[in-house]
Specification:
alpha+beta
């Protein structure tokens, strides 16, 4: 074999290999969005507005369980001022649907904590709408509805 043939064979092999090794398994968009929801919940409870700031789009609109609406600034202010004791917070019943660069996430949030000397359990259903921008998911809309215990 000539040196050119060897060079082109090596080049073909190099191009067929991945550009770099992955540090872990590749996660699907659905897995990424579920993790964002879990991280958002944890960030809210620890008053981590900086984390939440990275998730919310500039045009974010939220409809709270009492029917009132808020925007990005209000949601961040609520995250900073959150001071309620939560003994447990769990999310389940995730449904994630993608429509191009848009995704909708439905899930149920279960909160347990003290209130006036009693243990209070609250359940909410959420619908969050995300848009993929610059290779990251940003939430543009959120709505919560309080539901009775299952």
């Amino acid at each position: 074999m000539t040196w050119r043939m060897t060079f082109f064979c090596l080049l073909a092999v190099a191009m067929a290999l991945p550009a770099r090794a992955q540090s872990g398994p590749v996660r699907s968009d659905q897995e990424v969005l579920v993790q964002i929801e879990r991280d958002w919940d944890a960030a809210f409870r620890r008053n981590d507005a900086a984390f939440i700031d990275g998730i919310l789009a500039d045009e974010f609109v939220v409809t709270y369980d009492d029917g009132s609406r808020g925007d990005r600034a209000k949601e961040l202010a609520l995250a900073v001022s959150f001071n309620q004791k939560v003994d447990s917070s769990t999310q389940d019943e995730f449904i994630v649907k993608e429509y191009g660069n848009t995704a909708i996430v439905w899930f149920t949030l279960h909160l347990v904590g003290p209130s006036k000397g009693q243990t209070l359990a609250l359940n909410y259903r959420f619908v969050d709408v995300f848009v993929l921008r610059d290779a990251r998911w940003q939430c543009v809309s959120s709505q919560s509805t309080r539901i009775s215990a299952p």
